Amino acid sequence: MNFLVIWLTEGTAMNRMLVIDDDRELCELLSDYLKPEGFDVEAVFDGAQGVVRALSGEHKLVVLDVMLPGIEDPRYRRELSVISLPVP
């Protein structure tokens, strides 16, 4: 699995996290692990819809499966690179 983690800093709630992956069990596992740590985890199972949600500005952190069907379109990667900042 290859993942891209996008750390967002402006206009987002500190504990909101978006996971974009078609593996529902993995998304559930991440949610089960992170909710007790104070994260509000939203899972999206479709690449195109995940990009829309990532660009909404509602999340502090986005974890994206870069091999996800529907995300291979270079347009989506450009859109996500605009909001992607280096992880401190």
Percent of residues in helices: 25-40%
Number of extended strands: 4
Number of domains: 1
End-to-end Cα distance = 23 Å
Give the ordered list of helices and strands.
EEHEHEH
The rounded Rg comes to 12 Å
Please identify, by name, the CATH architecture.
3-Layer(aba) Sandwich
CATH homologous group name: Response regulator
Q: What structural category do the secondary elements indicate?
A: alpha/beta
The amount of beta strand, in percent, is 15-25%
Any idea of the CATH class? Alpha Beta
The largest beta-sheet arranges its strands as 1-4-2-3
Largest sheet: 4 strands, mixed
Please mark out the parts with pLDDT under 50 across 5 or more consecutive residues, or reply none: none
CATH topology grouping = Rossmann fold
Mean pLDDT: 76
3D structure, described in words:
By secondary structure, this protein is α/β, with parallel strands linked by helices. The chain has one domain: Rossmann fold, CATH 3.40.50. Helix content is 33%, strand content 23%. The protein has three helices and four strands, in the order ββαβαβα. The protein has helices at residues 24-34, 47-54, 74-83; strands at residues 3-7, 16-20, 40-44, 61-65. A four-stranded mixed sheet has the order 1-4-2-3, sandwiched between helices. The longest helix has 11 residues, at 24-34. It is globular, with a radius of gyration of 12 Å. The mean pLDDT is 76.
